[in-house]
Amino acid sequence: MITRRQFVTTVAGLAIAGLASTRAMAAPAVTPSRGSLTGPLRKSVFLPLIGQTFTVSGRSPWLTPMKLTKVSDGSSSKRTEQFSLVFAGPRDVRFLEGIYTITHSVAGKTKMLLQPKGRDAYNRYYTAVFNLLL
What is the reported pLDDT for 35? Predict the structure, then answer.
């Protein structure tokens, strides 16, 4: 016969193991060296994050989900790297041009300037433009 203590210990162990495996499966595959927002923000950082959801916060305490939909090339040289990001957010939430905190569940967070770039029937779009000296 199983005791109450053995039952509780077994159930707690299974719950912790299940939680750990669920988190491991839910985390998107992002390698820290190429997908981390804590280092230099190069185009190579954002390419593996296309199609993934970020949360955006700024002047209000609310967090708004936005999806990185596109990474576009600009004119680059040996000494510069130019590119832009396009984010799609909910149509009913409007951000003005400004600096916002962008957070990804695995890659981390950073601040960037977002500029409104239009809307359609479903989303509002925002761009972030990068002109980096290498």
Answer: 66
| pTM of the predicted structure, to 2 decimals | 0.73
pLDDT at 41: 93
* Residue 91 DSSP code: T
Helix (H) or strand (E) holding 124: strand 123-133
CA–CA gap between residue 113 and residue 133 (Å, rounded): 17
Q: Which distant-in-sequence residues (6+ apart) come within 8 Å of 66 by Cβ?
A: 53, 54, 55, 56, 87, 88, 89, 102, 126
Backbone angles phi, psi at 46, to 5 degrees: -90, -25
**In this model, does residue 16 exceed pLDDT 80?**
no
User: 101: which 2 tokens?
Assistant: 């905190």
Residue ranges of domains in the chain: 30-133
Q: Which two tokens stand for residue 33?
A: 């060296």
- pLDDT exceeds cutoff 60 at 116: yes
Tokens of 21: 């495996």
- Per-residue confidence band for 15, with pLDDT thresholds at 50, 70 and 90: very low
Instruction: Give the CB-side neighbour count of residue 95, counting CA atoms within 13 A.
Output: 33
